[in-house]
Amino acid sequence: MRKYLYYVKNGDHTKGHLTGEIRVQEKPLDVNKGEEVELDHLDTEAEKSATVTYVGLGYKDFDSKEDYEEKIVEVIDQKMNEVEIEADN
After folding, report:
1. What is the model's pLDDT at position 87?
2. Least crowded by CB within 10 Å, which of 13, 15, 85, 88?
3. Of 81, 46, 45, 66, whose CA–CA distance to 1 is shortest?
4. Could you please report the per-residue DSSP string of 16-80?
């Protein structure tokens, strides 16, 4: 199972995209590893939008859900080092 990883460089806490957060998802964004992309997130209820900046960390293929759960923290550290992003914590 393939997972795509992204670092939230400039987030919006009201939309649940916190700066410094790592996003892991099954569908890719249109951004290459180590590059930035800005995406607008629309809140139709509040009639507001927010721009969030993501940095592509690449992807990782896991053998199973158990493999993912066992290795994801290590993979995140590795991917962040590959694009030279330091964690805030």
Report:
1. 54
2. 88
3. 66
4. TB-TT-EEEESS--S--BT-EEEEEEEETTTTEEEEEEEEEEEEEE-SSHHHHHHHHHHHHHHHH
Q: What is the dihedral of CA 13, 15, 21, 24, to 10 degrees?
A: 170
Q: Where on the phi/psi map is residue 20: left (φ > 0), alpha (ψ -120 to 50), or beta?
A: left
pTM value?
0.83
Number of residues that make up the chain: 89
CA–CA separation, 64 vs 44, rounded Å? 36
- pLDDT band for 6, please (50, 70, 90 cuts): very high
